[in-house]
Amino acid sequence: MAKLSILDLVRVRQGSDIRGALHEARDFARHAEALGFTRYWVAEHHNMPGIGSAATSVVIGHIAAGTSTIRLGAGGIMLPNHSPLVIAEQFGTLEALFPGRIDLGLGRAPGTDQVTWQALRRDPMASERFPQDVMELYMLLGPLRAGQRVQAVPGTDSRVPLWILGSSLFGAQLAGELGLPYAFASHFAPASLLPALELYRARFRPSPVLDKPYAMVGVNIIAADSDAHAKYLATTQQMAVADLFRGARSLSKPPIDDIDSYWTASERGQARNFYERAIIGGPETVEAGMAALIAETQADELMIVTDVFDFDARCHSAELISQAHRR
Q1: Residue 61: in which H helix or E strand, if any?
Q2: 36 — alpha (psi -120 to 50), left (phi > 0) or beta?
Q3: Which region holds residue 77: left if phi is over 0, alpha if psi is between -120 and 50, else beta?
Q4: What angle do helix axes 311-326 and 283-297 make, rounded to 10 degrees?
């Protein structure tokens, strides 16, 4: 059976603040742990007032300190923004503090806009070196080699598991050639899901990490006691998507009765592509949607985004998703 995990955007809600978002992330991870989810990831985003996970490794440490068994990780670290040595040291530190519980997902996008990209002092050619940086990071997290003059302290021989993340065919090909697990971001780029998985499996070469492909699929799932209530809860994320199209950086908003009163016809059309793989509904709808997605993709794991404004409703959504998965 496919495993089930959670990707948390660490949304900052209207009426709350960054501190509240970080504490809710920790509490939600504890709830996911009790429900039996396999892992809980947060992602690197910058200059976004509504997302509190920019200092990704710090956030992982905060959540890890509030949980005991669930795996924690980055989904992902945007490696071209950083030195591989610094990331090896950060995640080596996390592994030293929380042994056997840390994952490191790697992406090559900036995780922000052009202006912020410049503020990060990002090298324009950094994305082109992504495969080389991944291999450098892999070596820094591996055993110390004879004659190695630079080592990650901590980090060396920590063997923190690396994942390649992607929303296009580039990451799929790289993950396959390196023999690493692959996570596809169909929660925001669903169009290339099946071609990317096909390419990953076709190009896969066994490695010391994996002897066969391991594919994770990111998907938006919002569950409630009825289809109608789930669709109502989903308007929070739909407003966030509309704001993204508008270039606005707003806090997470409470759900509304009529999403068409918020977005334009053009935005609704754009969002239709965004939500192509989303599963939104009551228990039966969610169960059927998850079963169909797993059957179609043969995913080894689903990484769930359940973006709900109210914390208790979000916890209930996770409960219903977990129950549907067990059935």
Answers
A1: helix 56-65
A2: left
A3: beta
A4: 60
Domains of the chain: 1-160 (3.20.20.30), 214-327 (no CATH)
The Cα-based distances of 212 to 3, 60, 176, 177 in angstroms read 16, 28, 10, 12
Identity at 279, one-letter amino acid code? I
Q: From first to last of its 327 residues, what are the pLDDT tens digits of the chain?
A: 899 999 999 999 999 999 999 999 999 999 999 999 999 999 999 999 999 999 999 999 999 999 999 999 999 999 999 999 999 999 999 999 999 999 999 998 765 667 776 777 667 677 789 999 999 999 999 999 998 999 999 999 999 999 999 999 999 999 999 999 999 999 988 989 999 999 999 999 999 999 999 999 999 999 999 999 999 999 999 999 999 889 888 899 999 999 999 999 999 988 888 899 999 999 999 999 999 999 999 999 999 999 999 999 999 999 999 999 998
Question: Two tokens at 226?
Answer: 């009825």
| Coil, helix or strand at residue 170 | helix
Inter-axis angle of helices 56-65 and 84-97, to 10 degrees? 0
Give the Å distances, CA to CA, from 284 to 33, 98, 295. Answer: 23, 37, 16
User: Is there a contact between 322 and 37 (Cβ–Cβ < 8 Å)?
Assistant: yes
Cα 170 to Cα 21, 144, 166, 175, 192: the distances in Å are 33, 30, 7, 9, 11
Long-range contacts of 242-248 (CB under 8 A, 24+ apart): 242/267, 242/271, 245/270, 245/271
What is d(CA 110, CA 56) in angstroms, rounded to the nearest whole number?
A: 14
Count helices and strands in the chain by DSSP H and E runs:
12, 9
What beta strand segments (E) does the chain contain?
Answer: 3-8, 39-42, 71-78, 102-107, 162-166, 182-184, 215-223, 279-281, 301-305
pTM value?
0.94
Burial 225-243 (b: 16+ CB within 10 A, else e): eebebbbbbbbbbbbbbbb
Please return the burial class of 165, using the count of CB atoms within 10 Å of its CB with bins 0-12, 13-18 and 19+.
Answer: buried
